[in-house]
Amino acid sequence: MMRTTRGRLVRPTVAVLGAVVVAVAGPVTPAAAAIPHVPPPAPPGAPPPAVVAGLVRPGPSTGAAPVTPVADAWVDSMDPATNHGTGSLKVDGLPVAVAYLRFDAQGVDPDPSALLRFHVETSSSTGVEVRAVGDEPWQETTLTYHDAPPLGAVVGSSGPVSAGTWVSVDVSALVTGDGPVTVALTTGNDTGVRITSREGTAKPELLVPAPPNPSPYLVTRIGAATYQAVSQVTGHSYRGSLKTVVESAVSQLDGRGGGTVAFGPGTFELGGEFFKLVQIDDITFAGSGMDVTLIRNHSTASADTEPFNTKGAVRMTVRDLTVSAGGAPRSTSDALDFDDGVDVLVERVRVAAARGRGIVFDGKNQGWSSTGNTVRDCVVTGTTSDGIELLASSRNTVTGCAISHVGGHGIQVNRSSENADQPNKTSDRNVVTGNVVDQAGQDGINVDGGTANQIMNNRVTNSADDAVGRDGIRITTPAGVACAENVVAGNVATDDQAVRTQRFGLHIATSRCAATVVGPGNDFTGNLLGAIRDAGTDTVYH
């Protein structure tokens, strides 16, 4: 399957005749399967699986004999006349380093599936790309940057990789059985990656046909600080820290088109670490239940330490677990952070603590969209800042959530700042419905800039218990930022505390917000100063 990758790399069309070149970049993943039972242990006397750099590799399960390279080398833009034909391969984005590998695939039956596997010796937060390359001859002992074959289209990518693990990338489109298959590995990251060459013990492999997708991986705790992720299909297993085994499993699944990382019952400790998930598609993280599976970290670092720290996730799902992100308050360090997330689903997730926000979708930077995401049936408490924030993020849905005792707004639909990469980018056409917000530190629901957002059928009580002068539902915008046709209908916003803190049930705070629709079914009685304060322009009441 030919894959394209979002990002800044050029992907020219290349005719591949007899030779194939592969390079590695961003990730992609299809929907997750249900979790089968864990396979029984091996019978007595069975040989133990081989262990290679952290990967437990059972004997062959598909009948596919791996093809190893007949030549490999890497080239360096900083040393363009030098040949690097021995030792580990190097891949780097700046200065540019590209690794080339050739496999003798003559006569291989071109099954619809083919898999490239290679062993990474160092970690990378973005991983490597697999690119097609034209059919040009090169020799292991003479290849240099000056005469290296040009790179073509990205056909697959690894996603983030951990040191000492194997990476799999689908290269089915490149294997024809007519001749050699040449592989070029690249990265856009300016932190280089070392990859084991054919001179090493963990040689790169080409598998035709590809073994089955390893989804799902089941993650369990096997020691005080040791975890394992075991494929319920192939038996492949990663062992090490929670961060290492999860990121390794994700890398394998992403290279195969997606799948599920499942967590059993219990507490899963990240310590001060976090999952770094970049450009992944169709990956599901599934716990055993909101009250059964806890993923936890704790940090006082002056850096973002979100347990789920994502960028560019597409169709990612997190469900049926609790996330606790403890530590010193930091406004941008959240429990679940989706930068440039598209069609992400978060359901039946509890956030028990966060240094910053509980759940945030962020579309403020250049090239980011953050659209079509859904948060439903979640519980958020104990966050230093907002419970849920849609930041420069449009066409999302937040529904059926219970948010209480948060330091910021319960739910915020928010523009980017005037200093952002996309300044004052608004959040538009979001639906916030059927949520319960109690004792938000600031507004229960806050809309700051945006058009046609729907705030419907929510219950908001006892807001502004940390910051005075806040409201149940507040709609506002600064000068020059659109705020029009937002809808507020069917909500209850009241204060039933002995000492009330929530000023108004609904506050349209500026004349710059035009044509707000205040629909039927709202109940704004019982607030500190009154039901509605309307400073808007041309507000429509039904």
Main traits of this protein?
Jelly Rolls; 38% strand; 542 residues; 3% helix; 1 helix; 23-stranded mixed beta sheet; mainly beta; disordered N terminus; Pectate Lyase C-like; ten-stranded parallel beta sheet; elongated
Task: List strands and helices in order, with pairings.
Layout: E1 24-25, E2 50-52, E3 55-57, E4 69-76, E5 89-93, E6 96-103, E7 115-120, E8 129-133, E9 151-157, E10 165-170, E11 181-186, E12 193-195, E13 205-207, E14 217-221, E15 227-231, E16 237-240, H1 242-255, E17 259-263, E18 266-271, E19 275-278, E20 283-286, E21 293-299, E22 308-311, E23 317-327, E24 336-339, E25 345-353, E26 359-362, E27 374-376, E28 379-381, E29 388-391, E30 397-399, E31 402-406, E32 411-414, E33 431-433, E34 436-440, E35 445-448, E36 450-451, E37 454-456, E38 459-461, E39 473-476, E40 483-484, E41 487-489, E42 492-494, E43 504-508, E44 517-518, E45 530-534, E46 540-541
Parallel strand pairs: 1-9, 14-17, 17-20, 18-21, 19-22, 20-23, 21-23, 22-24, 23-25, 24-26, 25-27, 25-28, 26-29, 27-30, 28-31, 29-32, 30-33, 31-34, 32-35, 33-37, 34-38, 35-39, 36-40, 37-41, 38-42, 39-43, 41-44, 43-45, 44-46
Antiparallel strand pairs: 2-3, 3-16, 4-6, 5-6, 5-12, 6-11, 7-10, 7-13, 8-11, 14-15, 15-16
